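Components:
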Amino acid sequence: MIRCGFCGDEFDESEGTQPGCGACVGGCHGIHCPRCGYKNIPEPAFLKRLKSMVTRNDKEHDQ
Amino acid sequence: MSASAVTPDSIQHLRRVALVGNPNVGKSVLFNALTGSYVTVSNYPGTSVEVSRGSATIADETWQVIDTPGMYAVHTITEEERVAREILLNEKPDVVLHVLDARNLERMLAMTIQLIEAGLPVVLVVNIMDEAERMGLSFDLSLLQQRLGIPVIAAATARKRGIEEIKTAVAGLGTSCGLPISYSRLLERDIAEVSRLLQGQYVLSRRAMALLLLQGDEEVTGLAGQQEGEQYPILAEKVREIAFERRESFHLDLSMERKEIVNRLVRGVITLPDKRRETWGSRLSTLAVQPLTGIPLLFITLYFGLYKFVGDFGAGTLVDFLEGELFEKLFNPWITNLVTGWIPWWWLQELLVGEYGIITLGLRYAVGIILPIVTTFFIFFSILEDAGYLPRLALLVDRGFKWFGLSGRSVIPMVLGFGCSTMATMVTRTLETVRERVIATLLLALAIPCSAQLGVILALLARTPGGLLVWIVCMTLLFVLVGVLAGKLLPGEAPMFYMELPPMRLPQLSNVLTKTYTRMQWYFLEILPLFVLASVLMWLGKITHGMEKLVNAMTPLMQGIGLPKEAAIAFIFGFFRRDYGAAGLYDLQSKGLLDGRQLTVAAVTLTLFIPCVAQFLMMLKERGWKVSLAIFVFVSLLAFGSGYLLNQLLVTTRLLG
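Structure:
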């Protein structure tokens, strides 16, 4: 889930992906909020992986 | 409950459950929990509003689940609300799940009342209970269920709490439509008088129809016109008569009565914590949306954020260091020596390290000038975004934007325009009316500079404080003048603007850094190839003497606004990309080709000047060639016309020496 930086709406990343305006080289990198249209920035893949690693380590540590 | 796949034909015959409620109450989360991955998202016929549909098995039966757009009341204002009501009217769901936020139960219950009096089969889902309980609120929902006469379920759908109870309530809901809601004697008399005249067949109860007619709901009035046939004029006359008797205060009277009913309903249902602390966030939020405090707060934010941080620090200190010290003094001389020493062909030397060289111009502009500016701008922007300031800004300017025929919703494309006007032009499609989209597109093309352009201009003019003041006055005057004229000349009303405000909070460093990093990464990856391409085109222009001809052709125009012929280069750059044009202006200033007056005139003209190629193409796509061409011609004439007048004024008055 992603929270829109403008209206605060929570939505799934897949809901917000649009073809984009075509101005960006290599396609749209934003996630447009399905409610207000605001262009949100997705979390970089490496940060997601890093966070999931940290979370996994925490869980293992707790166990 | 499990999700199951059904064919498009069979889905039409399924029992339906529609999720309705305000935005941000967790409808989509509940929808996902009910339907799993079998979901279709499509535009509602005749609109740009998307509606999600999926299927789910509830008590061994397959149901169609519809996630409606957010709505605040049955009496609709926005296109999303209209679509949500259309679904209730046309698709006749077997169950309406009204999802509301437990933290705002009092405010949102007014719509539950409206759904009940419309005769719809409602189940009330009091969602986000976990957050409400954390705030110290406690609820007696069985008492509320008893008072409303419909199932009331406590839920925290994000944590999967209450999902099973919701399923059970959906499966077990009979034909009961809740207990009757009574208003004052006077209002009941009005409702009865209108209801009595309604003879047609409606999905909504006559009582709800009467209330919507009295509220002047256009769609419901149109529907009554069709259904009542020859009897309609009598009905319309009765509605007019009541409106006249109440001196057009029906909306207010009804809202007050509903508020009173809600107060009675929640009495004993909600228990507040002993001490309800007002947080700094809620205090700041109040200050940010009230004009008296909000406008000074906005100016303070802009002064420190844009002027001091982006303009002074980013475009001043950082650019001076990167462009002035690193590129001009160290990197460019070194690379030029290296290339000229190793590569014998002058045309290749020119391409790499010449006047418009890929390295000496393209890379220098991208890394030395634009990068530090957009980095500081993205930091500032991410802080505002993460703090939740942007929706407050929308609310603050809503009243002012009405003068331009816009609503606060237009703040979204305007704010995004500071990042990239091309993408912002696309976002204008989310505005409610065609009129609003055209006005927003015009203002974006005219007076919203992108962050890099703004940063360079602020930094350049900061050295001529009088020039900066003139630039601010010119831009504000033209923005307001064109906006007001567009609002007056284009027919139509400014739409109403409602927005749920997410809480204000202290920006989180990790969020700000992540957002800044991602924005910078994509921006840089995007601009670098374009800057290289622009350098190649310029180089081609130089070796074929095409650039010289273009500059010569533009010379009279430049002279007309009091600028040297070299300034044409910045304008040509600007058509490739706005930030490239601003960087060109920076170069001219560095070479000492512009005095204070010329710099101010160039900055005003360049800011107003036609949008870049990408933005123009987007305008064509979104608004069609007639509107786009009209905007293109208008903006170009206005830019150079304003430049001419400003130059004459400054020469005559010697305002800037």
